[in-house]
Amino acid sequence: MALKHRTKVDPSFSMSSMTDIVFLLLIFFLVTSTLVNPNALKLLLPKSTNQVAAKATMSISIKHHAKSNHFTFHVNGKEKPVAFDQVEAELQRLLQDQEDPTFSIYADKTVPVEHVVNLMNIAKRNKYKVILATAPE
User: Fold this and answer.
1) pLDDT tens digit sequence for 9-25
2) CA-closest candidate to residue 44, choices 35, 31, 34, 56
3) Which of 28, 42, 107, 131 could cross-link to 62 by cystine, CB 3.0-4.6 Å?
């Protein structure tokens, strides 16, 4: 007498282990992507209490002249403006002997972000740290 065992294959599949793996991979990639390039520019944004870890050795001021609608750049608060083409050379000359070169940007409220970003690009090219100055609350 031959006994036949009927083993039926269950076609269902549990997705819980697959979702766990996908979730862990998602967390892994999110963590590693932030470690690759956390900041393109080294910015030190001061708190409203004006406490900054690094002290700026010099400053660049961007002044907006509303009547003529043009912008001037001033190094270390001097009255005589410097052309934007000469700002990078002036920064290099003044910060060449500094161990941790840092400068701060003082911009009027009406100055477009484009001008501030141009100064930040100069800092990135020369590996300077930048402090974006704000008014206290």
Assistant:
1) 777 777 778 889 999 99
2) 56
3) 107
